[in-house]
C-alpha cells in the first residue's frame, strides 16, 4: 500500500477519473459526474474547466428535459478533435486507424501483409496509410499518441516484438520503426493483439464491468488477453497470456514455437485444416471454408470442427480452473470455432472444470468485433492521456 | 481509475502505509519513514502519534549511533501486544498460532486431524488450542482478528469451503464454526492455503519485492497462490489458482475432483506413491520415504521421482507461458519434489517454455517454511487492520 497522493497527484487523478468517465460513457451531465465520481459540484466544475481549457472536453446546455430548475451542463469528450493513431499488425494484413477520444473509429485503412514482411518494411506501409488519413484531420485537432497491436510477444519496456511465431518476427522493433517513419512527435505504445483486444472489450465492450476475464484470440495461433482483479495481466516482461503454448499433448504435433503438443496445434488454423484433411490450405478463408463445409454436412469437416471444439473446451477448462473468470470471450478465429462447436465446448467444460470455478462463467463473443485490436491499440495511447490529462499536446 | 481519496481516506491510507512499513520491515526511524514514504516530517510525526495513541506502535530513542545531531526516534510495531490468531486446516493436522504485528509467531499448537474430520468437529479442537494459548496473552494485548488457511476452494465472500478434494470437505463453513466456538468478537477471514502461503512469502518471504509470482503448494493435492502485478489473483469467487486440476493427460488417472488426468494425479502424493509401486501407502512420511529411497539408490523410487519431476516441469512450463512470472516457489511436498528432481524440472522447462517467458524466472523454495500458512492466515487478519488502523479493537 502506497501513501496517499499529494495535492498535485490528487488533481491529476481526479482529472483522469473525470476524463475517463466521459471517454468510456460519453457525454455526461455535471450532476451525474458529481454523483458517480463522489466529488462535489465545485470540484467537478473546476476539473471540467481545466479539461475544457486544453481542449479535451466541451460543455453545452442539455436538450430540454421538461424538468423544472436549471438544467445541469453536459460534459462531452472532444471526440472529433482529440484522437490517437492505432495500428494492427496481423498475420495477413496491416491496419491503421484514427480513433477519437471516446473510442469512435474516425478513419481506417487496410493493406495486405505479405507473409515474411518485417517491421522495417511494414512501417512505411503503415506510415503511408497515416499520410492519407492526415488529409482528413481538422487543423486544430490534437493527436495524443499512437498504439500498436501485434501478433507476438511484446516486451513491455520498449515494445520490441520478441517472437511472433505466426508472423515470423524475432526481435522486431516495430514501435521504433513506426516512430522513425511517421515523423509524429507522439509516444508509441506496442501491445500483443489479444491483450489490447481484451483491454478494449473490458473498457467498452462485452466485458465492461467484469473484473476477471479471459479473451481468447485466434488468428493462425492462439493467445489470450487476461483481466484479473480488474487489471490487465501482463506478467514480468509483458509476455503473459501465451495460452496457445500450454502443452495439452505430451508428445503432440510440432508447433511453430519450436516445442510440441501446444494447445494451438489442435485449435489453431493448422490443426483444424489438418484435421479436415486440408493441410495444404492456409489463411482465414480456408478456415472459414471448413466451417462452411461442416455446416453443409461434410462429414470430415464436421469431425474436424467437433474435435477442435473439444480441444478448445479442454484448454478453456484448464484456464477456468486456474483463473476462475466470470467471462470467457472467443475472438478472431476462436469466435468461429466457438459458434460452430459450442456443444462440444460446453460439454468438455462441464466434465473438466471444477464446479465452483465454472458456476458463474459466461461464454461470449466480442462486442467490438474486428475493430477490437485497433480500439485497444488506441486505448494504450489514451491511457497515457488519462494518467495526466493536462500534459496533452 | 477512481477519483482521488478524500481527506479522511488520505489519513487512513497514510496511517496504513506507515503501519505496513513497520509491520513488514520492523522498527524504523522517523527519518527513514520520511524518506521511504515520501511524506514530510510533521506528517510522519502526526501519523506515528495517532498509531501510538491506539497502541499499535511505540517510539523510543535509538541506540547510540555515534553520529552528531539529534537522533531520529525509532518507530516499532507493538508485536507482543498486537496480534492475530491464525489457523491452518491441513489434510492430516490442525494448527493454531498467535502471530504478532510484525509477523512473529508468538505461540503455536498442533493437533492431529483424523481424515474425515469436518468443520464442526475441527472448530472445537482449534478453540481448545486457542484457550490454552490465551493463558499466555498479556492483559492489555489487542487481538485484531483471525485468519484461517485451509486446503480447499474457499468462497471469498463468506469463507465457505466449497470443495476440499483432499480433506473430503464439501460446503464446510469453517469460518462460521470457528466464530461460534471461539466466542472472540473479531472478524475471521478464510483463505486457501496456497493463496495465503503465497501472500506471506510475498509480504515478508522469498518473494518480497516480486510482482509476478507462482507459489506451488503440494500436500496430497497441489494448488497455487498467484501474485500478478503485485496483487493476489483470487478470481471471481475466490477459487483461482487451482492449477492441480489443469488436465495434462487427456484420459489420464482418475482425480479426487471427479475428473481425470489432472496435473496432481501425476505430481501429487498418490501419483508419486503409485509410480514408486507404493500405492497402498499414504501421507507425508510415505512420500518422504520415496525421496529417501531414491536418494539411497532404489531404482524404482528414482524412476518415480524423475517421472514426477518431469511432470512438475511440464506443468510449470505451462504456467510460465501463461503468467510470465519472475519467480516460481515450490512449497509443501513440491519443495521435496523440486529438490529431488531439479534437473528434470529445468530440462522440461527449457524445452517447453517460451524463451521470453522463461528468461527471468527464478526457481525458489519458501523462506517461511512450514509456518507460511499460519503467517499468511494472520496476514489476512492484519490486512483489515492496515486498511483502517484506528478502527482497531
UniProtKB/TrEMBL annotation, chains A, B:
Coiled coil: none annotated. Signal peptide: none annotated. It holds the Pfam family ROK. Keywords: Kinase, Transferase. GO terms for molecular function: kinase activity. Belongs to the ROK (NagC/XylR) family. This is Sugar kinase of the NBD/HSP70 family, may contain an N-terminal HTH domain. It comes from Micromonospora coriariae.
Amino acid at each position: 500500500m502506497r501513501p496517499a497522493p499529494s495535492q498535485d497527484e490528487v488533481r491529476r487523478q481526479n482529472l483522469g477519473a473525470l476524463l475517463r468517465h466521459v471517454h468510456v460513457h460519453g457525454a455526461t451531465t455535471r450532476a451525474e459526474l458529481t454523483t458517480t465520481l463522489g466529488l462535489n459540484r465545485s470540484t467537478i466544475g473546476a476539473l471540467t474547466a481545466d479539461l475544457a481549457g486544453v481542449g479535451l472536453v466541451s460543455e453545452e446546455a442539455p436538450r430540454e428535459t421538461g424538468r423544472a430548475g436549471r438544467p445541469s451542463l453536459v460534459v462531452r469528450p472532444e471526440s472529433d478533435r482529440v484522437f490517437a493513431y492505432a495500428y494492427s499488425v496481423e498475420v495477413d494484413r496491416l491496419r491503421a486507424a484514427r480513433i477519437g477520444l471516446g473510442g469512435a473509429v474516425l478513419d481506417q485503412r487496410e493493406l495486405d501483409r505479405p507473409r515474411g514482411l518485417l517491421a522495417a518494411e511494414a512501417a512505411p506501409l503503415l506510415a503511408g496509410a497515416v499520410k492519407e488519413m492526415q488529409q482528413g484531420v481538422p487543423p486544430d485537432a490534437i493527436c495524443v499518441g499512437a498504439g500498436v497491436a501485434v501478433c507476438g510477444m511484446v516486451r513491455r519496456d520498449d515494445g520490441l516484438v520478441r517472437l511472433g511465431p505466426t508472423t515470423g518476427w524475432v526481435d522486431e522493433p516495430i514501435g521504433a520503426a513506426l516512430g522513425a517513419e511517421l515523423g509524429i512527435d507522439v509516444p508509441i505504445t506496442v501491445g500483443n493483439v489479444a491483450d489490447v483486444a481484451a483491454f478494449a472489450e473490458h473498457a467498452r465492450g462485452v466485458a465492461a464491468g467484469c473484473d476477471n476475464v479471459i479473451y481468447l484470440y485466434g488468428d493462425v495461433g492462439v493467445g489470450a488477453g487476461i483481466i484479473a482483479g480488474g487489471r490487465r495481466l501482463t506478467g514480468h516482461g509483458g509476455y503473459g497470456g501465451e495460452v496457445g503454448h500450454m502443452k495439452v499433448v505430451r508428445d503432440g504435433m510440432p508447433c511453430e514455437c519450436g516445442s510440441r503438443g501446444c494447445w494451438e496445434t489442435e485449435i489453431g488454423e493448422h490443426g483444424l485444416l489438418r484435421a479436415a484433411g486440408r493441410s495444404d490450405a492456409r489463411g482465414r478463408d480456408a478456415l472459414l471454408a471448413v466451417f462452411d463445409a461442416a455446416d453443409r454436412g461434410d462429414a470430415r469437416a464436421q469431425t474436424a470442427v467437433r474435435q477442435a471444439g473439444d480441444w478448445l473446451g479442454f484448454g478453456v477448462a484448464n484456464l477456468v480452473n486456474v483463473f476462475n473468470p466470470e467471462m470467457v470471450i472467443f475472438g478472431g478465429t476462436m469466435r468461429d470455432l466457438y459458434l460452430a462447436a459450442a456443444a462440444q465446448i460446453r460439454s468438455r467444460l462441464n466434465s473438466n472444470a471444477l464446479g465452483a470455478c465454472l458456476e458463474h462463467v459466461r461464454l461470449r463473443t466480442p462486442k467490438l468485433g474486428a475493430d477490437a485490436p485497433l480500439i485497444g491499440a488506441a486505448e494504450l495511447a489514451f491511457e497515457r492521456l488519462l494518467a495526466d490529462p493536462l500534459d496533452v499536446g
